[in-house]
Amino acid sequence: MRFRIQPREVEIPEQDPFRNDLLGRQEPAEVLTHMLRSIEGPCVLAVDAPWGAGKTTFLNMLARHLRNQEFPVVEFNAWETDFTSDPFLALSEELTNGVREYTVGPLSDEIEKVKSAAKDVVRLAVPSVIRLATAGILDISPLIEREAGQALASFAKKRLSEYLDARTSLQAFRASLGEFATRLAESKRNRPLIVVIDELDRCRPSYAVELLETAKHLFMVDGIVFVLAVNRSELAHSIRAVYGGEFDALGYLRRFFDIDFYLPDAKRRPFIEETLRAAGITDYFRNRSRSRTLGDNYESIRNWLVELFSGSDLSLRRIAQAIHRLGLTYASLPKNSPSLALAATTAAVMRTLNPNLYGRFMRREAEDREAIEHLISRGPRPEGSEIDHYLEAVIIVAAMELRNPGRDLFGVDPSPLLAEYHEEADRARQSGDNDAAATRARSIIGIIGQIRDSSLLGHGGLGFEEAARRLELLSPSLIGEEEEEEEERSDDGRGN
Fold first, then answer.
1. Cβ-based neighbour number of residue 368 at 10 Å
2. Which of 114, 159, 234, 298 is most exposed by smallest CB count within 10 Å?
């Protein structure tokens, strides 16, 4: 069996861009399309969503859909041009090259004018700062005051001349770009040119800010609409990195974006199910005999992951990384030995939902009660749901295993939490009560009993520590976790 490490990019068929849409993105794309069709004049539209929410896939689908609706579209990946120090050069080059498919007849002459004007801007608007600033003055101390004054006057005159030339070239560029965009829109039933900019919040802070300012001030002409994918809090952080920590970054951004469009929360169930398939987990269970261990089957694992991850605030990227890590862990499990799939899934869920708590739990520093209180509080599931009872029972068994390594769990004392459940069940049995607390206690005790009775490990447990060890053998860089973890650490430290 072969497992894939990195998730595949979503295939976007040319004539049916939403065929593989797992997140319910067609409706917001249709809303945006209607909005873009109604816009007259220059505009910057921000598609705002958190890191890892699927902005790139959404923009790719949107761009393909807009082309099918006869919009001229240019796609610009800001991160891929981050290596350059001149965002104007990058954006003008990508734009003029990107529109060539729409330039026939007179429009081909118009785009050549734009390209020529852009070259003038690049040549005139980027002087050599070091050469002009020093002009040989700072290194020649014997200069007398009169000579220094003459040199500075000459320097100022030269800078003024360069500024005037640069301003003229910028005006010429905007005029030629505006003329081209207007004629292009006329040839496309008055549909504006859509410039889609993605990955802006992954760029160097200085480059991200300069690119945003360049797009707003130099490319905003009639007939062009910019659609930018942004994580507003991350972009605000980039702006503060350039202008200072006390700078009003959010207010600054409001001046740049004419329209804010917040990408709705995704439908997570189909996304999780497809990721399970892509990670090889579906095939893992299909290709092995059905285990008699409670919960050790695809349906149980799928339902558990869907419930726990759907109700969390995790990004889609983080969910995909967790599932792919789990798939690789499954691949490492011995084929003919008792399955550790349930234990590996439990460890993966704990590790993903609360990494710090998971580490403390593995070091025996956190009891089952603390782990349960933190994990079950995640998500909108109704109190006393079956999935929560199941999770609680598995965590209790895992904690017993960690504190009694190698021992038969039938012969060890229960944890204080499990002892409380036994007391509650006994109380209810004696009094005849059937309240929620008693129902919960009986349910959890019953699940623990089933886990013990169905275990093939010989000690009534799950093999939790062994499964967790296999889970941790994988390097974070293997499945792209390092970048996500760094993003979360920076978010935690900013308090946006």
1. 23
2. 159
Angstrom CA distances, 314 to 12, 51, 80, 123, 317, stand at 25, 10, 26, 47, 8
| Residues sharing a CB contact under 8 Å with residue 199, sequence separation 6 or more, in sequence order | 56, 77, 78, 79, 80, 229
Burial letters 246-280, b for 16+ CB under 10 A, else e: eeebeebbeebbbeebebeebebbebbebbbebbb
Global confidence as pTM: 0.70
* pLDDT for the residue 155: 58
- Per-residue pLDDT, 103: 84
- Under a CB-based contact definition with an 8 Å cutoff, are residues 272 and 319 in contact? yes
Give the model confidence (pLDDT) of 435-453 as tens digits.
Answer: 888 999 999 999 888 887 7
CA–CA separation, 217 and 211 (whole Å): 10
- Within the chain, all domains assigned CATH 3.40.50 are found at 26-262
Pairing type for strands 193-198 and 73-77 reads: parallel
Name the phi and psi angles at 333, rounded to 5.
-75, 135
CATH number for the domain whose boundaries are 26-262: 3.40.50
- Non-local (6+) Cβ contacts of 72 within 8 A are 99, 102, 184, 188, 191, 193, 194
Q: How confident is the model at residue 141 (pLDDT cuts 50, 70, 90)?
A: very low
What is the C-alpha to C-alpha distance for residues 340 and 463, in angstroms, rounded to an integer? Answer: 6
Spatial distance between the Cα atoms of 396 and 368, rounded to a whole number of angstroms: 6
What pLDDT does 13 receive? 94
Spatial separation of the C-alpha atoms in residues 43 and 267, rounded to whole Å: 30
CA distance 118 to 173: 6
CB 437 within 8 A of CB 384: no
